[in-house]
Amino acid sequence: MIIGYVIGEASPQEALMLAESPVRVGRYVILEYDGAKVLGLITQVTRGSPFLDLSTNDVKIVQRLRDFETAIPQFVKAVIKLLYDMNSGSQPDLPPSPGTPVRFANDDELREIFSGGDIVIGHVIGMTIPVTIKVNSLSRHLAILAATGSGKSNTVAVLSQSIAEIGGAVIIFDYHGEYYTSDIKPLNIIEPKLNPLHLKPREFATLLEIRGNAHIQYRFLRRAFTEYVKKVRDMIKEGTVDYQSLNSSFVQDMEREIDAIVNGEGEGKGQRSQKEAADEVKNKLDEFVDRYGNLIDLTAPDITSRIKHATVNVVDISHLDEDGMDAVASHYLRKLLDSRKEYKTRGSGLRFPVITIIEEAHVFLSKNQDTLTKYWASKIAREGRKFGVSMIIVSQRPKGLDENILSQMTNKIILRIVEPTDKKYVLEASDNLTEDLVEQLSSLGTGEAIVIGGLVRLPAFVKIAKFKGKLGGADPDMKGEWSSLMQSGIQDTEFG
Amino acid sequence: MTMQILHISDTHLGSRRYNRESREEDVYNVFHQLMEIAVREHVKAVIHTGDLFDVYKPSNRALKVFVDETRVLRENGVPFITIPGDHDTPKVREEVYPQRLLGDSLGLIKVLLGDSEKSFYELREDNLSVKIYGVRNMSNVFKERLLQILGSLKPDGDRNVLMLHQGFREMLPYDNAWQLEIGNLPKGFQYYACGHVHSRIENVLPDGSRLVVAGSPEIIREEEIEPWAKKGKGGYLVDLSGKEPLTQPINVDVRPQLVEKVRVDDVDSEIDRLLSKLQGLSSKRKPILHLILEGDSARRAVALKRLSRLEGYVDFYRVYKDETVDVREKVSPPQTQGSVEELMASYLKAQGYNEGEVKLILEAVEKYDSDEALEILRKFAEM
Fold this sequence. Notes:
The complex is a heterodimer. In chain A, 39% of the residues lie in helices and 21% in strands. Chain A contains 16 helices and 18 strands. An eleven-stranded mixed beta sheet of chain A has the order 8-7-18-17-16-9-15-14-10-13-11. Chain A has a six-stranded antiparallel β-barrel with strand order 1-2-5-4-3-6. In chain A, strand 3 and strand 4 (36-48) form a beta hairpin. The longest helix of chain A is centred in the last third of the chain and has 25 residues, at 322-346. Chain A is elongated. Chain B is built from eleven helices and 15 strands. Chain B has a six-stranded mixed beta sheet with strand order 4-3-2-1-11-12, covered by helices on one side. In chain B, strands 5-6-7-8-10-9 form a six-stranded mixed beta sheet, with no helix packed on it.
C-alpha cells in the first residue's frame, strides 16, 4: 500500500515525502527506485494547510471553515532518513527521484533486518517484529542511558536474563538492591567481601585514603601490610590458623606491625615526623574499620571462583556507602580482568568470558572525580575485548560520565532522555549516533529505546520487552504504607 | 556420654616407597595403631577423608590388612565412614572405586560420594543427631560441579560434619593444585574434615567452625619429615558434644626419618656425628636417613663406600640429593640477592645486551599483556 510520494530535492541520505494521511515518527518505509530497495525511517512529520497558513489571523475564518461540510484541505509531509539498500546491503548511494512511491516496510523485510541476532530484547515500536541483538558485539561494551523512570532496570533485567539463558555470565553491581531480590533466574548472590590476602598494598592504601603523595605514610602502610600478609601466609603454611580471631583483630595486628616499624627505625633523625606519619596511618586504619570493618574477611574467596556461568551474578553492594561500593567494585573488576588475562596466557584463570554491569555509572565513572573503579573500568573499556571482559554501564545522568569511557561504549541502548545537555553530551561521545536520532529521544515512551552499534544491523527503535516477574526498582507505595500504619493504629486503640 | 569421633586420612595402604618391604609394613603398622586408638577412646565412628589406598587397584595384601585391621571396629559397632581420594579414583572409566567393593558389596564400610543418593550418615547418641556428609575427590575439571554439589548439601543435624579430599587455595596456592577456597565451603557445618594435604592443619573459621586436615599417619614423602618432627603424625579426636567442636591431635609412633647434609671431604667425622645423633633418638625403631651430599665431587665415590658404616644403625639410608661440585670447573655462583627484575637485568647484561636493550626487554616483560607490548617489541626490533 502506497502511503505517499517523494517530493522536492532528495539526497542519498534523506528525502521528503508528501503523504496521503498522517504517519507516525519511527515507522519504517520502503522506497524502490533505480534497482535499489531502500529502507527508510520516518524521523519527522509535519501537517499543515495552505488555507490556514501562518498569515491567517482571523479566528472567525477558521470557525467558518470548520462549519463547511468538507474538511479543511490539508497536507502531511514527512522526512525520511534513508538507512539501507536491501538489495546491495549497503548505504544507498543514489537519491530517490521525485515521485518515487513510498510504502510501509512489511514484516518479512523488517524481520530480515532486525531479527538476525541471538537474543530478543523487545520488538520494533508499533509492530510485532522481534528485535534481536548480536551478543558477540557486546565485547565492544554497551551503555544504557535514560532518564529516571524510563525503564533502565527493566532493560538490565531483560538483557541479563537472556544472556544467562544462552549460557553467559553476567555480574551486576547492585547499587540499589533491585536485583538480588528479583525473580531473575538463575540468580547467584555474592556477598561483598574483601580479603587482605588478595589485595595489593596500593589498593589497600587507597581504601585507607592514603594519597599518592603521602610517601611516608604509604611506606609505613606498605611495609606493615606486606609484613602482615607474610605473617598470615606463614601461619597458613604452618597449618594452625584461627581465622575468627584474625578477622576481628585485623586492625590491632596492623597497628602492631606499624609500631614495630617505627620502633625499629627509631634512631633516625626524622624521628618525630616518622612518629606523626605512623599515627596518621593508624588513625586512617581506625576510620577504615569504622567504615568497612565488616567487609574484611581473610577467608573470602576470589571473586572469580564465586561467579557462575549461565547465571546472573549479583554483588549486593546496596548496604555499603559509596566509598565501600567503589572499593568492592574496583577490586572485583581488577580480579576479573587479571584472571581472564591469566586464562589467555597460562590457561589457569577464569574459564569463561564475563559481562559486568555497573549501575549508577555516573557515580563510579564520574567525569570530575577519580575513583578506583574508574581506573579499572577504563582499563576494561580499552583492553577487555581481548580477554573477554565486557562492560555495560547504566546511567541516568550521561553528562556526568567520563567521556573517554563513554566513547568506548560502541553500543548504546538509549531510552527516553529529555534533558538537552544530556542529549548533546551523548551525541558528542558517540560516532555512530546522528543528530536526527537524538532529536527523537524526547518523544520516546517508557520502555522505548533507540539501539545503536554492532548489536543491531541498523539503528533500531525498540519497545523493550517487559521483564516477567518481580523487580525491586519500582517506586515505593508511600500512600499504601501510611494507610496500613493508620489502620494498625486504629486497631491498637480499639484493643487498647 | 560424649560424642567423640576419630578423624584420620591419607593412610595410603599398600604404599611401598623406595620399594622397601619395611616401608610397606610401616604404613600398615600406623594403621593398626589408629584402630587401637579408636577402640581405646570409645569413639562413635571413624571418619577417613580419602586416599585409603595408595592406588585405585590395591594389592590383595593391602585389602587384607584393611579388612583384618578394621574387624575390631565392626566387633565394637563402630562404623568406618569414608570418601574416595584422588589416589582411590579409578583412572579408567569402567573401573570402580575400591571403596565400592568394601562398602556396596561387602558392607564393611560406609562410603559417601556426595552426588549419589545417600548424602550423609547419621550418628545418634542421647537425642543428639550428628550427620556426617562427604564429597568424593573431584579433579580441577569438575571444579564447578564440586561447588554445585557443595551448594546442594542441606546440613540439618544437631551437629554436621563435612568430609572433603580437595586442595585448598590457601594451602596449595599453585596453578591447578587447588579446587576450593575456604570461603567456598557451604555454611552450617561445625567440623570440616579434610584430607589430601599430608601435614596437619587446624583452622578456626570466621563462624567458629573448625577445618582440620588430618594428614597422613606415616611419612609418605620427604617434605613431610619437617612437619612430622614439629607436630607428629596420626589423627584427630573430635568431640562434637558441645556447640563448638573440640579437637585433639593424637599421635602414632612413626619410624623416625632424618634429612642430613654430609660433607664428602670429611666423611668419617660426618658419620661419627650422624651416629651420635642417631643415639639421641627416642624411638626404638631404626631410622631412615636421607643424605644430601656436599663438597668435592671427586671425593664422592670414596664417601659412598665409607657410608656403609651406617648399616646396622639405620633401617636404611639413601642419597636424597647430590650437591657435590667439581671444584676444578669454574662456575660463577648464581646471584641470590635482589628483585626478580634485577636478577633478569644482570643475566641479560651477562649475555651481552646493552643498558638500553635490557631496559626495553624488561619493559616488554612487565607489560606483556598490555596494548603497549607490541609497540615495545617493534622498538626493540628497530634497535
